Every structure is written in structure tokens, then in C-alpha cells.
Amino acid sequence: MRARENEGLFFTVLLFSIAIFLFCLAQGAVSAVYPSYLKSFVLKAHLVGLLAALVYIIQLPVSGPVGALSDTTGRKKLLIVSLSAFAGVEVLYFINHHLIALILLQLLAGLLMVTVFVSSEAFIRDISPPEKRGEIRSFFGTWVTAGYLIGPVIGGWIGNTYSIRIPFLLSAAFMLLSLLLLSGLRDDRSHGNKASMRDRVSLLGPVRRFFSLGEEICYLSLSAIVLYFWYATKWIYAPLYLLHLGYDLSIVGIWLGASLLPLIILQIPAGILGDRIGKDRVIMGGIIISSIFIAPLGFISSLNGLILAILIISSGSAMIEPLINARITDIIPKESYGEYSGVFEGTKILGCILGPVVTGFIVELAGFRYAFVPSAILFFLLIVGRGRIWA
Q: Which own/partner contact pairs does 364-372 have at CB distance under 8 Å and 24+ positions apart?
């Protein structure tokens, strides 16, 4: 009986992970050309950052209510609706040539994106037994990362060979495939949050309840902000830095893919290690690696050096990413997985907003060499903050 339950769990995790892999493959295919696409509408580097931030600005106030809605309506329903709409939005990106329309598309894409990610994280929390949370989240995270690894290579090659707009059509096709897989998935779990709907979809109620859970929640949330500050900086300004150095879009795609390779290789071992020796220890190891190796990135110009640096940095990310999510699951109550997944997603979104905006102004003022210094400083402050908590 136990073996049959384990087989059923594995199949569910695998099918769901492949479906979200296809969504991330779609996003990754666009990511290699996305900065160049945005730059075709505006001239200044900080305006590219502001356009990119629009996707995340709309997500910040709605992430908690979206999570609460998934507690009520079910994860699968929200995923199917959002993926269907997202495929249409990607087609609109392909045909659009107007800045005002781009702003609207950015806002709509942000709303749909947060729905996918919040519902996905809540679903994984639903099905993860306590003794395997690190391992299952790492397995899921590996598939997510694989999509973001393979996608940029495909999108970069297509953008460089044909047009920077074609990857948006490819993205729509991948999302439809993801939709087909999700339609065969069962989501019959009861999500028993008894709070009133009005209270749960309010903007501040979920946030207050989430942060009232204690100091550890606050630190993990700060860690998520910093990690996603770095992620957003990497995905927006690292490609522009590589283009500034004279590399083409194919190289940009390869570099972005290489940046995710350690997350493919190390996430599952990091998750298993975290379940055994403690998640906090593994997270801190990743933070230390990140704080040391991010700052010099803008002072490296050789391709070999850039790839080596990002492989080391991403090894640190592989130790942080799955385990802050698994640690959050250890703390939050099961009946509020959707709601609190939404709030925690909001902390990631805040990092994604701050990253492009702050880095854009740094690039404007000091140049690309200093683009990655703010991320390094924030990781160092996390080390200091953790030391004070332990003291």
C-alpha cells in the first residue's frame, strides 16, 4: 500500500513538473530576446528596467489574493485559465509595435504569471509530505530550471537567426502543450481555509497573518527579495552587458542557459542535504557564495571567465532557491498554503521590481561594470542579519 502511494505521488509530481517545465521553457525562450525587444521601444537603459518592472509591479498587490483564491477555487482551475490567456498574450507581443500597448501587455503578463507561479507553489506544498519537502521542492525546481535553461538557448538562436519576435510565438505553443498536460491532472484536495473570502482577498490581511508567524518568516522573506533582486538583474542586465561587450544573441542564450546548469545538477542534492542536516545551514552556504562572487561579474569580459563566474554564483542560488521554499512550508499552516504562497511570492516579486529599477539607475550613472554590485551588497547584508538572529 505504501509503495503504491509513493508511486502515485511520484507520478503526480512528475506530470505536474513536466507541465510547469513547458511553461518555463516558454518563458525561457522569450528571455534571451526580451531585453532587446524592450529596448526596441525605448532608448535609455533605466527605461528598459522600468518596462521590465511593470510585469512585477502588478503582481505585488495581487499575489496574496490570488493565492487565497486558489485555496477556494483549486489550483488546477486557475492554472488552466491563466495558461490559456497567457498563450494569447504571447501572440499579442509578437504582433505589437506600440509602446502603450506594450505597457498594457506587460501588466497583463504579470497578472497571469503570478497566477501560474502562486498556484504551482501551492500545489507542490499540498502534495509534499513533511519528511520529503526539501527533496520534492528540489525535484520540481529542477524541472523549472531546466525550462529556463533550455528555453534561452532555443530563443537566442531563433532571435539571432530570424527575428526577436518569433520566440513569442514559440512561447505560446509551449504554453498550450503545458495546458494539455495539466488538463489530465487531478486536483481533488480540500483547501480548508475558513477565513471569510472578503478578508482573504484583501491586500493587507494575508500579509499581516503571514508576517505574524515570526522572525524566521521575515528573514526568509528578505532572502527571497535579495535572491530575486539578483535574478531580475541577471535576466535583464546581464544580456545587455554581454551585448555591450560585443557578444551576439546566441551567446546570450548560451550564457543564460549556463547560469541555470548548477540549479539542474545541484538542487536535488541540496534539497536532500537540507532535509538531513538542516535547511538553514544549506541556505547560508548559498548566500555566502553569492555575496563573494557576484560583485566581480561586471569586471570580467572574457566568455570563459563570464561562464565560470556564473556557474559558481548559480551554485549558490541552487542552495538557496529550493530550501527557502521548503522552509516556508515547514512553518506555514496547511489550510493557508495558497494564501501564504501568494504572500511569499510577493516578496520574490518585490525583488524582481527592485532589481531592474535599482540596477538600471546604477548602469545609467556608473556603467555596466557596476551593475551587479548592489546584488552582492544585499547578499552580504543577509549574512550580517543572520548572524544577529543567531546571536
A: 364/44, 364/45, 364/46, 368/237, 368/240, 368/241, 368/244, 368/298, 369/298, 369/299, 370/298, 371/233, 371/237, 371/238, 371/241, 371/298, 372/233, 372/237, 372/238, 372/294, 372/295, 372/297, 372/298
- Please name which of 329, 313, 83, 132 lies closest in space to residue 220, comparing C-alpha atoms: 329
Per the CB < 8 A criterion, the answer to whether 141 and 321 are in contact is yes
User: How far, in Å, CA of 289 to CA of 315, rounded?
Assistant: 8
Q: Which domain holds residue 135?
A: 2-186+196-390
In a domain, 370, yes or no: yes
Confidence of residue 251 (pLDDT cuts 50, 70, 90): confident
Q: How many residues does the chain have?
A: 391
The distance in angstroms from the start CA to the end CA of the chain is 46
From the list 83, 253, 90, the residue with the least C-alpha distance to 169 is: 90
One-letter amino acid for residue 386 of the chain: R
Predicted confidence (pLDDT) per residue in 288-320, tens digit: 998 899 989 989 999 999 999 999 999 999 899
Those residues whose C-beta lies under 8 Å from the C-beta of residue 367, and which sit 6 or more positions away, are none
- Is the pLDDT at 195 greater than 80? The verdict is no
CATH number at residue 89: 1.20.1250.20
3-state secondary structure (DSSP) of residue 204: coil
Tell me whether residue 218 is in a domain. Answer: yes
Sorted by sequence, the CB contacts under 8 Å of residue 188 that are 6+ apart come out as: none
Q: What is the pTM of this model?
A: 0.75
Helices (H), 278-372: 279-293, 303-331, 337-366
C-alpha triplet 174, 175, 180: angle, nearest 5°: 100
Which amino acid type is present at position 365?
Answer: L
Residue type, 302: S
User: What span, in angstroms and rounded, lies between the C-alpha atoms of 295 and 304?
Assistant: 17
Structural domain contains residue 261: yes
* Residue carrying C-alpha cell 534561452: 152
- Structurally, the chain folds into a number of domains equal to 1
Q: Is-contact 161 32, C-beta < 8 A?
A: no
Indicate if the pLDDT at residue 135 is higher than 60.
yes
Please check whether residue 191 lies inside any domain of the structure: no
DSSP code string of 141-201: HHHHHHHHHHHHHHHHHHHHHT-TTHHHHHHHHHHHHHHHHHHT----------S-HHHHT
